[in-house]
C-alpha cells in the first residue's frame, strides 16, 4: 500500500505543478494476484474501453450509460465515470458527451484527456478530443483541438506533447492522417510533426488502431492500417523517433505483418505496449486464421535494439481467437481478448498440443514467451479492451461481468 500511495502522490504533485505526466507502463516486481479487489463499482452496460488514474481518482471511459456502487446504488453515467482509487467511492464527475470514449490519459492540474467518437462536450462543439477537470467534470476551455471526422482511439501524453491516433484526416483544419502531435495545454497541432501515413493500396482507409510511447518519450510504436510511415515502407507497424521536431521512421522494421489474415481486415493488429525499460514492445492481433507460421491471433515480442529487419523474439499463439489488449509490466505480459488458450500454435479454434486454457485473460513470461501459471479467468465476451498497470495492481476493462470467478461489472483490479 505504501508504494501505491507514493505513486498516487507523485502523479498528484506532477499534475498540480502543471507538468503533463508521461503515459508509460508501470514496472511491477511480481505477477498480480488472481483475486480481484472487492470494492470496485460495476458498470452495468456497454463496454469499458479506457482507464486512467489521476491523483487518487480512477477515470473510466467507454460506451456505457450506468454504474452501480458496491453498496448497490445505481447512477446514470454516459461514456465517462470516476471513482476513488482507494475504496471505489463514486465521484460526482459526470461530463456530458454525446458519443463514446475510446482513450484516456492523465493531464496536468487534476485533469484528464478524453478521446473518442463524441462531437460535443458539455454542450460545446468539440469533436473527438477534450480535456476535463476530474473534480468538476468541466471542460477545460483553453484546450480546443477538434478532429474533422471519424474518431480518436489512442492517446499518449509526455511533457509538452499529447499524441492522438485514430481515423481522422485533420485536426483543427490541419491535415494529419490518423496520427497527430498536439500541444498538451492548448491542443494546437505541432506543425513540424507529420508521420505521413499512407495506405498499402490507394483504396485503403488509413487508421491508427493503437500506439505506445516509450518510457523516455523518444520512441512511438504505431499499429494500424497503413503501408508507409514517414516516407518508409512499414506494413501495419512502425517505430517513430519522436525526440526531435519531426516524425522520423527509425531504422527498424519488420516484414512479419505483410501477409494478410483475412480479406475483411484492413489491419489485424489490435494492441501494442512498450516494456517499462523501453527495450522491447509486444503486439497483439486478431485474424481469423491459424497456423504456427502466421501472426494472426497472436502476441509477439519485438526487441528494439539494432538496425534493420527485426523478427519476433517470440510468438504466442491462441489457436484462432482474437487478442485485443496488452500490458507489459516487466514481470509479465498480460493479454486479453476472447481467447480460450495460449501456447496453442497448432490449434484451429481448438486445443492443440501443449495448449493451456486461459479464457479471456492471461499472462505470458516476457523472456520465454510461454504462458505463466496466472489464470484468473473471465467471461470472454468480445474481450478485454483496456489494461492499466499501476504500482498497486492491474486494472482491467471489458464488456463482461465475471472476472476471477467473481461478479465484476466490466471493470476490476487485480492487486499485487
Automatic annotation (TrEMBL):
Keyword annotations = Signal
* Pfam families xrefs: DUF5122 (PF17164)
The answer to whether the entry has keyword Lyase is: no
Q: Where is this region: Disordered?
A: 346-376
Matches recorded under InterPro entries: Delta_60_rpt (IPR013431)
Q: Where is the signal peptide?
A: 1-24
Name of the molecule in the record: PKD domain containing protein
**Source organism per UniProt:** Phytohabitans houttuyneae
Amino acid at each position: 500500500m505504501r508504494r501505491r500511495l507514493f505513486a498516487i502522490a507523485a502523479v498528484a504533485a506532477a499534475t498540480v505543478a502543471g507538468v503533463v505526466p508521461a503515459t508509460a507502463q508501470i514496472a511491477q516486481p511480481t505477477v498480480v494476484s488472481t483475486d480481484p479487489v472487492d470494492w470496485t463499482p460495476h458498470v452495468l452496460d456497454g463496454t469499458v474501453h479506457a482507464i486512467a488514474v489521476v491523483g487518487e481518482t480512477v477515470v473510466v471511459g467507454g460506451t456505457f450509460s450506468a454504474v452501480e456502487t458496491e453498496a448497490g446504488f445505481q447512477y446514470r453515467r454516459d461514456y465517462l465515470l470516476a471513482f476513488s482509487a482507494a475504496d471505489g467511492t463514486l465521484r460526482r464527475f459526470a461530463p456530458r458527451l454525446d458519443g463514446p470514449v475510446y482513450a484516456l490519459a492523465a493531464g496536468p492540474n487534476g485533469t484528464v484527456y478524453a478521446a473518442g467518437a463524441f462531437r460535443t462536450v458539455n454542450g460545446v462543439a468539440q469533436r473527438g478530443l477534450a480535456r476535463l477537470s476530474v473534480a468538476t467534470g468541466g471542460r477545460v476551455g483553453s484546450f480546443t483541438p477538434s478532429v474533422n471526422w471519424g474518431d480518436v482511439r489512442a492517446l499518449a501524453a509526455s511533457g509538452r506533447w499529447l499524441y492522438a491516433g485514430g481515423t481522422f484526416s485533420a485536426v483543427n483544419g490541419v491535415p494529419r492522417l490518423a496520427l497527430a502531435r498536439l500541444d498538451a495545454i492548448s491542443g494546437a497541432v505541432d506543425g513540424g510533426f507529420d508521420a505521413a501515413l499512407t495506405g498499402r493500396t490507394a483504396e485503403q482507409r488509413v487508421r491508427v488502431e493503437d500506439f505506445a510511447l516509450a518510457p523516455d518519450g523518444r520512441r512511438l510504436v504505431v499499429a494500424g492500417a497503413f503501408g508507409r510511415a514517414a516516407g518508409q515502407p512499414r506494413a501495419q507497424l512502425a517505430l517513430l523517433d519522436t525526440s526531435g521536431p519531426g516524425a522520423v521512421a527509425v531504422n527498424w522494421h519488420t516484414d512479419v505483418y505483410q501477409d494478410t489474415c483475412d480479406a475483411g481486415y484492413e489491419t489485424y493488429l489490435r494492441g501494442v505496449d512498450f516494456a517499462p525499460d523501453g527495450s522491447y514492445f509486444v503486439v497483439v492481433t486478431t485474424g481469423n486464421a491459424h497456423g504456427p507460421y502466421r501472426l494472426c491471433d497472436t502476441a509477439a515480442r519485438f526487441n528494439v535494439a539494432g538496425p534493420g529487419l527485426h523478427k519476433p523474439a517470440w510468438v504466442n499463439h491462441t489457436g484462432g481467437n482474437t487478442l485485443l489488449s496488452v500490458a507489459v509490466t516487466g514481470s509479465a505480459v498480460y493479454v486479453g481478448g476472447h481467447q480460450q488458450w495460449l501456447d496453442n500454435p497448432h490449434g484451429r479454434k481448438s486445443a492443440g498440443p501443449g495448449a493451456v486454457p486461459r479464457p479471456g485473460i492471461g499472462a505470458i513470461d516476457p523472456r520465454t514467451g510461454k504462458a505463466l501459471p496466472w489464470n484468473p479467468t473471465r467471461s470472454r465476451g468480445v474481450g478485454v479492451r483496456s489494461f492499466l498497470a499501476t504500482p498497486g495492481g492491474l486494472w482491467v476493462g471489458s464488456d463482461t461481468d465475471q472476472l476471477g470467478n467473481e461478479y465484476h461489472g466490466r471493470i476490476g483490479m487485480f492487486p499485487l
